[in-house]
Amino acid sequence: MKMKRTFALLATGALAIGLAACTDSSKETGSKEGSKSKYPEKAITVVAPSGAGGGWDITARTFVKVLTETKLVEQSMTVENKPGGGGATFMAQYATQDTKNNEKLFVNSPPILINNLKKEGNSPFGYKDTTPLAQLTRDYGALVVAKDSKYTDLKSLLTAMKEAPASINLAGGSAPGSMDHLIGVLPAYKFGVDPLKVKYIPYDGGGEALTALLGGNADVIATDVSSVKEQLKAGKVRVLGITAAERQKSEELKDIPTMKEQGVDAEFTIWRGVFGPKEMSKDAQAYWKDSIDKLAKSKEWKDEVKKQGWEEEYKNSDDFKKFLGEQEKQIQELLKALNMAK
């Protein structure tokens, strides 16, 4: 009887050990499959596909600075510059070699669309070869003249352009078919001017285009409105219209009319956003969705945006993808009108 009791106790103990082992095994499996993601476990690189000091570079560095200082991202973060081809050189490498690299993000703006759609854009890759994570900021295109120009509003310029397009020198800081050119011809195209007849003079950067305007070598320049705030404040230039849906609220821009309110349906957002690799993991996507959402709402980010003279406009991944699809159609239409589409 005593032997039977001992055997029963031993059997019960063995069963308990077996169940515990199964439970531990189950827990271990759960830690691999069902537990919270540990991403990111490595350092994060944010690429600015340009040289130091430009808009992409400053955006990337500000993004990294705020995420690091607020501890929204605790892994180390660095910014890497990859200039060449207006972003096309970097995209060729990223879209083919970094398709699953969750630790490498990059910043961009409308050129990611333009370079892919333009006949001579040198990029077979576009936003669909990435995972758009968020739009961070916005700016708008503007047509700008010197303070003493005879063109006092958008309609007077466009009417003259329609009557004799070759007589007006439109300048910009980028190549034909690039962003400044598209911003310049958009209102003309919407006003009924043949874009092919618009005389566009490309300069090597917005600063040189502005110098040409102030020196009398251009009648009007197409640019982003934020880049002429200082000249506007100093009374050196006049902004005839901006490509926003409504007037801006900032002190410098509140009195500038939109093109739309002047009867020209020409809206165009110059955004800056963050992208990840095309095959980014679900865990990484969820992590960045949460982190960037918190970043956009933080006081630290809002202060930096104001300091840089940017305009806030946050779009999460889903809204950003939808917007990019819409802007892609707009750019495609303009490039076709210019005979520059692929």
TrEMBL record:
This is Tricarboxylic transport TctC. The keyword Glycosyltransferase does not apply. InterPro entries: BUG, Bug_dom1. Keywords: Signal. PROSITE patterns: PROKAR_LIPOPROTEIN (PS51257). Transmembrane segments: none annotated. SUPFAM superfamilies: Periplasmic binding protein-like II. It holds the Pfam family TctC. Belongs to the UPF0065 (bug) family. Residues 1-20 form the signal peptide.
